[in-house]
TrEMBL record:
Region (Disordered): 1-23
Keywords associated with the record: Mitochondrion, Transit peptide
UniProt-annotated location(s): Mitochondrion
Source domain of life: Eukaryota
Protein name: ATPF1 factor
Organism: Nesospiza acunhae
Entries under InterPro entries matching the protein: ATP11 (IPR010591)
Lineage: Eukaryota, Metazoa, Chordata, Craniata, Vertebrata
Any one Gene Ontology cellular component term annotated for this protein: mitochondrion
The family this protein is said to belong to: Belongs to the ATP11 family.
One GO term of the biological process aspect: mitochondrial proton-transporting ATP synthase complex assembly
Keyword Mitochondrion: yes
Pfam families xrefs: ATP11 (PF06644)
PANTHER family in the cross-refs: ATP SYNTHASE MITOCHONDRIAL F1 COMPLEX ASSEMBLY FACTOR 1 (PTHR13126:SF0), CHAPERONE ATP11 (PTHR13126)
Biased amino acid composition, Basic and acidic residues: 7-19
């Protein structure tokens, strides 16, 4: 009553709020803005990367994904949060691996660069061969290897980046996959198995990897399945069941 101009101004603002769509949130806008800012500041969005036959990136460096110099100012926890937040919105597999765990995996990969993994299906399992090439781990189905030999194309590649391992104590990992043959659920299952077999403290589990590489005539396919079932990974990652493993 005392100030008609102020009253009219408030009514206009109220009308504007009512016109906003249901679910409109300034906090949501802020989060989206911060995510976009993170992409702009920290991530290179794959600039300068080259794709090879089959659609996988050749010589994919961490610099082609992440502004390494920028994140060096961040703590390991902050880098982990940035990495996870960025890739959580993408249809892919990713991880931040503790340096000591990757050290163990890497030393074993030098001695035993290949292994046979079992991917749970609705009925039974499908076998995949995983082959380390530097810090890249390439997967292709066993049937492809049997029919095409060394020319069998990769269907999944896990990229491990130890660039920040010494300074920050973490190794970053992400992946590319052929979506005609695998979905993210499949890729996550195979990625989880890499740590199960290569980073285990259980000698019997890693013993399967050694047998596959150095005493192939003694290797038994069913031993891999038995190990998966014993660990619980096989049951948890069977299609139609949820997994709480990262």
């Amino acid at each position: 009553r005392s100030n008609p101009d102020v009253f009219e101004s408030r009514m206009e603002k109220r009308s504007e709020v009512k016109k906003q769509p249901v679910g409109h949130s300034k906090q949501g806008e802020f989060i989206r803005c911060m995510e976009e800012k993170a992409r702009t500041i920290f991530f290179a969005e794959g600039l300068g990367s080259k794709t090879s036959k089959g659609g996988f990136t050749k010589h994919k460096t961490l610099d082609s994904i992440l502004n390494v110099e920028m994140v060096k100012e961040k703590s390991a926890e902050e880098i982990t949060q940035i990495w996870n937040q960025y890739f959580s919105a993408k249809d892919t597999v990713y991880a931040v691996i503790p340096a000591d765990k990757f050290d163990l995996m890497w030393k074993r990969a030098q001695k035993c660069p290949s292994f046979l993994y079992a991917l749970p299906r609705k009925e039974g399992y499908e076998f995949f061969v995983g082959q380390w090439s530097g810090t890249e781990l390439h997967f292709t189905s066993l049937i492809n290897v049997q029919t095409q030999g060394e020319t069998a194309p990769s269907q999944l590649v896990l990229y491990h980046y130890p660039d920040l391992q010494k300074e920050k104590g973490i190794v970053l990992m992400t992946a590319e996959m052929d979506s005609k043959f695998l979905v993210v659920h499949d890729a996550q299952c195979l990625a989880n198995q890499v740590q199960l077999f290569y980073a285990t403290d259980r000698s019997e589990t890693y013993g399967l990897v050694e047998t596959f590489n150095h005493r192939s005539s003694e290797f038994k396919y069913m031993a891999v399945i038995a190990e998966l079932e014993q660990s619980g990974l096989g049951r948890e990652l069977r299609p139609g069941q949820a997994s709480d493993k990262s």
